[in-house]
Amino acid sequence: MSASQPCRLASNSGAGSQIDRDKPLSFTFNGKSYQGYAGDTLASALLANGVDVINRSFKYSRPRGVVAAGAEEPNAIVQLGASEAAQVPNVRATQQSLYDGLTARSTNGWPDAQRDMMGLVGKFGGPFMPVGFYYKTFKAPASMWRTYEKYIRKAAGLGRAPIESDPDIYDHLNRHCEVLVIGSGPAGLMSALVAAGSGVRVILCDEQPTFGGSLLDSGETIDGMAASEWASNAVERLAAMDNVTLLPRTTANGYFDHNFVTLHERRTEHLGDTAPTLDGRRQSRSRLHRVRTRHVVLASGAHERPLVYAGNDVPGNLVAGALSTYIRRYAVRPGQRLVLSTTNDHAYRAALDWQNAGGEVVAIADARANPDGELVERAKAAGIRIVTGSAVIEATADRKGHRVSGARIGAIDIEGFRVSGEVETLSCDTVATSGGYSPVVHLAAHTGVRPVWRDDILGFVPGQTASRVEGFSVVGAAAGLYPTGALLEDAVAQVVRALESDGIDAESVKIPDIETLREGSAVALYQVPHDKPTMRAPKQFVDLQNDVTAAAIELATKEGFESIEHVKRYTAMGFGTDQGKLGNINGMAIAARCLGQTIPQTGTTVFRPNYTPVNFGAIVGRHCRELFDPERYTAMHQWHIEHGAAFEDVGQWKRPWFYPQKRRDNADGEFESMHEAVMRECRAVREKVGVLDASTLGKIDIQGPDAREFLGRIYTNGWEKLAVGKARYGLMCKDDGMVMDDGVTTCLADNHFLMTTTTGGAAAILEWLEIWHQTEWPELEVYFTSVTDHWATLTLTGPEARNLLAELTDIDLDRDSFKFMEWREGAVAGVPARVYRISFTGELSFEVNVQANYAMQVWEALFAHGAKYGLTPYGTETMHVLRAEKGFIIVGQDTDGSMTPEDLGMHWCVGYNKPYPWIGKRALTRSDTRREDRKQLVGLKPLDAKVVLEEGAQIVLDPQQAIPMRMVGHVTSSYYSPTLDHGFALAVVKGGHKRMGERVYLPMPNGETHMAEVVGSIFYDPKGQRQNI
Amino acid sequence: MARVAQFDPHPVQGAATQSPLHHRAASKPSGDSRVTLVELAFLDHLVLRGEPQGLAASVQAVLGLELPVEPQRLVIGETGSLQWLSPDEWLLIVAAGEGFRLQRELREALGDSHFSIVDVSGGQTLLELGGERAIDVLMKSTVYDVDPRAFPIGKGVTSVFAKATAVIRRVGEERWELVVRRSFADYCLRWLLDAGEEYGIDYRPAKVAATTPRAAVADTETVS
Amino acid sequence: MFHIYCPYCAEYREEEEFHPKGQAHIARPADPTASSDDAWGDYLFFRDNPRGVHHELWVHAVGCRKFFNITRDTRSYAILETYRMGEQPGVTAETATLAERDIERRTSDTATIQGVPS
After folding, report:
1. In a mutagenesis test of the B interface, which of A702, A853, A856, A857 is the best target, namely the one with the most B β-carbons within 10 Å?
2. ipTM of the complex
3. How far is the C-alpha of A704 from the C-alpha of B116, rounded, in Å?
4. Do domains A171-302+439-501 and A306-435 have the same CATH topology?
5. Which residues have a Cβ under 8 Å from the Cβ of A141 and sit 6 or more positions away?
6. Do residues A812 and A818 lie in contact, with contact meaning Cβ atoms separated by under 8 Å?
7. Smallest Cα–Cα separation from A694: which of A918, A537, A879?
8. Of A48, A397, A832, A974, which cross-links A314 as Cys (Cβ 3.0–4.6 Å)?
9. B69-119 pLDDT per residue, tens
10. In Å, how far is A68's CA from the nearest CA of chain C?
11. Closest by Cβ to A174, choosing from B10, B123, B142
């Protein structure tokens, strides 16, 4: 063994199938440098270097070391990353491949894991920190919880997120296949081989860098080869098939409806803190595969279950199988003197591997009275001392608690839950235990399938329930089937059956020859009795990650928590990133014992996605930064940018909000404020002419002989008389009588209409038309097609609009031949256009519609001719001010889904006498919609002309009343009008239509109260003369 | 009086046109691009709606194309391409300037039956995605199964594309077409360039046709 | 993430392409004016929320834009069938109960179903 890696086996040991001794790597843990090899995990490298203490525990701050070798590791959880931006919390050292320069720190421990301040709590406060300690101790006064929590969290530590932005990129890949095999142990490999042979698309994933699972550290012979060699042959065959996708370093983390599975592939996390470039191009650090598959074959294996005994959290306590993994795969024997405590034959492999690797096996404590399997015989033959009918009841620690110093072995009476004989103390530095295996049922549980207890294997397996998932098979150890020969045979049979259910013939597959060892039966033991009662014995940990002890579970049951779900929540067992991988079954068994019932009677808790933590980057994928959400652009977007527009988000559209100009009075070239720009744009429209890019309005082409009838049913007003060449404003209600959208619809020809909708409502209104057509009135002959993006709409508005447009068009714009609410076709700037004479500002307006590819030609021509008329581009804010001055509503701003047309004062837009009971009509005659004290749309004129009321401000009638005041409405739209030179607002007020001239009050959070007069909602040009010039 | 208003959007004299992606420059050339992307701008796009039995004969007569009645089928012929969008809806893409003439002829052939033809040329554009890794870019972008085993040449679907939507058509062994809406085109392009980065994506914008004459095939050749 | 068979596109598509539109087979009263306030209120606002078989209206929003019906088991989220507008369901709460008893009979022989509601 080398001095620098004291626990690394020599190269001539033959061990270490995964490591490459020619590629040494350096890494840093808690600021100290170490050496490891390519192929190591961080855990194997730390163990090789004799690092015992990896962390401090969550609650008691006790020193903790590596316990396992895979995803089930509860203790060795580290914070990764050399730089701030590369910080990754909650990384399991057992799953993190080593790379050169890797920098890791303990997740818990303040100031560090070796010298921990909170350890004092663990040492002295331990007995005083029972289950529910935080709930009980810090619950009063409630206001202080935040203060307590800050320190508790700081000390407990849960890893931390980086405070700098992540330099890496991540992505998603949508995959589809017929068979997804999760796990590449013997059952997974066999399943993949069978499925792949049939020619269907197969994905095989495994969380490890190397496929093979338990075969990698098995001593078995398959088809005359070492198990690991058989595995690598199988993988080679799979890799050569083009219908197979192999995904190593990929964890299946969530199993969702209808066989949708998310796989988290760690693509470069074994290469460095940040993803290296490939051929000079960035690659994603990790990738989320979103897999839709016909069949899921769950071959997730089983986790060895440790026994629960006193002192079982001291570094040097491991699950037995992990020893074989560290020795065989990584050539690491993490100690000298081993005591093994087991309930089954299988764990004997660990002792034999330990001895073969040059370690001393002090003793095997076997809980069975007469173990007699072949492995037991081998151990005896190897001269190992076997103490039957007994178990390790306590691991003792060195002075600092940093390493196991001995094991207390006692004869136990399992039935009576007591130590039944002499207790012997053996000196050792490592205690390994095995209480049997827990099938990894997590993914099955994600689908809602409850695990089912099986007494014959002493574990839960995925259940078959009435609400079964189609196309779901569980094979191998995940199904509680352990002997290699039997599980291979079963996997073949299950996959063949699954394929046959789809009518696919699977090739006949030869089941490999396996030497099968005769195994003795196991005994059920979870918590080992101690010579003191559980409540007074040294801590016996059930869930190491969440620091849940056997005593805590016992106390919880004594305090009346009988449901296992309640015990879980009270004690935190199986919480967080752990999801109960090692501890849950033991916890349930203890709860069952305390409650005097069986494990199946106690039941199990629910496992939820994700199986292991997934970084946020992988969840977000490419949907971040400038690709977070689509941005929709109009044909004039570049012009708006070039002319300095500030943009407003309207749905996904980017609309010019206002166009700040350089201030003329300022030599420094300072830009106008928003208020200044909007005032200037408003004046330009009222006095000269402005142009608005209105392309974002929803537009729906409606064709068919029943188009007119359809409009009459969907709008509140009448359409039967609208002549070709004319346009009409329409209101749409839902069938509850509440306004949902509005817009102008034009009659293009007898059977042809163009409907406009609000910008935000376009998609929803098209779906609305379709749902009524498809589900209620399929007999109506009409088709709807979205043309929102096809037409660009340029709105010219202001007293000079006609003069400007006349320079560019062949259309007769005379006020008597082209009347208000009519449309004409002609060329504008040489481009065929439909021009609508409609107005949303109250001024003379022409909306020019052209095919979007030609829009810039027209837009630029307008400006080429517009200077002499004072043409000014204006944005949505000016549009809002101008329309509000006219009392024109914006659906969604002045309405909120509870306003009827009558509430809006728009009874003129309701055709009560139309023949068909149109959408919303019936509801408008309900007593509630006829109430006179409904909130109604009114205008508000602040008494102080300079005040601009706050949108959303609540309205009261009596400002002197006690809080909570009786609120009678709120402000929906509020602006300053440069035309009127005072602030004004639209508001909804209870019974508002009958309150004209009344005074209302708006108390503000700063103590100020504004006064306003209720007025009509039209502030400007109430007779509508300006649009008719 | 005409039952339906017909409208030729193309100027008689020709006018400057701008595709939805006119502002985006070509990517820097690299020797090892495994994905190519080019905009096929200014084609005429028409949405045809009606009952298939009523439309098929006229469509065949006027367009020389079989009306695809099988879901997800795309038919390509000399006139252009015709794609099934729904049981009563098809997308017809033809050369620039051809749309209005064909619409008029179709309307004449279909006579009094109930149907609708709508010009959507200004509302969408066509991107051609090619190269050996085009499929990987698509897998990053759409939930639809684009594996050649499930997506033969001559298939076209409407599906989710990033957070927008697209019509996705397979027109060759490694050639795909994406029909995207004008307003989403910039987002979709940025998405494609980002998703294709690791394979070296070579983007060429459409050659800007200075003028697009009425009822004449415009120059839609692209810089290659 | 449902996998939904669109009866118009005649293939399975991802849930992201669809929008749910609530309970299916809610008929608008033929003559709303003759409908009482109570009956109209029921039509507008009241919906079933069964544990088990439920009929729902969905639309293939990013796809063929057609509305259709889904019969779904609200416990398992299993989609039992999809069918076009105007068609009647082939699976109902009554027929499904019979099939379910059959499954329970078969599974209860081999395993005890465990668990407590979360």
Report:
1. A853
2. 0.94
3. 7
4. yes
5. none
6. yes
7. A879
8. A397
9. 999 999 999 999 999 999 999 999 999 989 999 999 999 999 999 999 999
10. 28
11. B142
C104 touches chain A (CB under 8 A): yes
Is there a contact between A775 and C57 if contact means CB atoms under 8 Å apart? yes
* Fold topology of A171-302+439-501: FAD/NAD(P)-binding domain (3.50.50)
Say yes or no for a CB contact (<8 Å) between B32 and A704: no
Instruction: Please indicate whether, in this complex, the C-beta atoms of B3 and A752 are within 8 angstroms of each other.
Output: yes
| AA identity, residue A137 | T
Chain A touched by C52 (CB under 8 Å): no
User: Which CATH architecture describes the domain A931-1029?
Assistant: Beta Barrel (2.40)
Q: Any chain A CB within 8 A of the CB of C78? A: yes
Is domain A11-156 annotated with CATH 3.10.20.440?
Answer: yes
Encode pLDDT of A291-307 as tens digits.
999 999 999 999 999 99
| Subunit contact C73:A921, Cβ cutoff 8 A | no
Inter-chain touch A851–B118, beta carbons under 8 Å: no
In a domain, B19, yes or no: no
Enclosing domain of residue B106:
35-204
3-state helix vs strand vs coil in chain B, percent to 5: 25, 30, 45
Which tokens is A606 given? 């629910």
CATH number at residue B200: 3.30.1360.120
Q: Which CATH number does the domain A525-611 belong to among 1.10.40.60, 1.10.10.1100, 1.10.8.60, 3.40.50.10490?
A: 1.10.10.1100
Size of interface B-C (CB pairs under 8 A): 39
> Which of A452, A467, A923 has its CB closest to that of C73?
A467
Count CB neighbours of B38 within 10 A.
20
User: Binning pLDDT at 50, 70 and 90, where does residue C105 land?
Assistant: low
- Scanning the structure block, which residue is given the tokens 């030599």? A667
Interface of B with C in 86-115 (CB under 8 A): 86-87, 89
B198 → closest Cβ in A172, A283, A855: A283
Listed by start position, the domains of chain C span 3-28+40-104
- Backbone φ and ψ of A872, nearest 5°: -130, 125
**Nearest-CB residue to A257 (from C1, C40, C86):** C1
Give the residue extent of every domain in chain A.
11-156, 171-302+439-501, 306-435, 525-611, 931-1029
Whether residue C63 and residue B72 make contact (CB cut-off 8 A), yes or no, is no
Which of A517-526, A652-661, A842-851 is least confident? A517-526
- pLDDT digit string, tens, across residues A590-632: 999 999 999 999 888 778 899 988 989 999 999 999 999 999 9
CATH annotation of A306-435: 3.50.50.60
Inform me whether the C-beta atom of residue B28 falls under 8 Å from chain A C-beta atoms.
Answer: no
Residue C81 C-alpha, separation from nearest chain A C-alpha, in angstroms: 13
Domain count along chain B: 1
> Cis link prior to A111 (omega < 30° from 0)?
yes
Q: Are A854 and B8 in contact (CB < 8 Å)?
A: no
Report whether pLDDT(B216) > 50. no
**CA torsion sign, A604 to A605 to A610 to A612?**
negative
Q: B143 and chain C: CB distance < 8 Å anywhere?
A: yes
User: Are the C-beta atoms of residues C82 and C89 closer than 8 Å to each other?
Assistant: no
- The highest-level CATH class for domain C3-28+40-104 is alpha beta
- Band of pLDDT at residue A954, cut at 50, 70 and 90: very high
With a cut of 80, say whether residue C99 has pLDDT above it.
Answer: no
Beta strands at B175-181 and B164-172: parallel, antiparallel or unpaired:
antiparallel
- List of chain C residues whose C-beta atoms are within 8 Å of the C-beta of residue A467: 73, 75-76, 78
Determine the residue among B116, B137, B181 to mutate to test chain A binding: the one whose Cβ has the most chain A Cβ atoms within 10 Å: B116
Encoded tokens for A242: 């083009």
Closest residue of A to B91, CA-based? Answer: A785
- Alpha carbon distance, N-terminus to C-terminus of chain B: 48
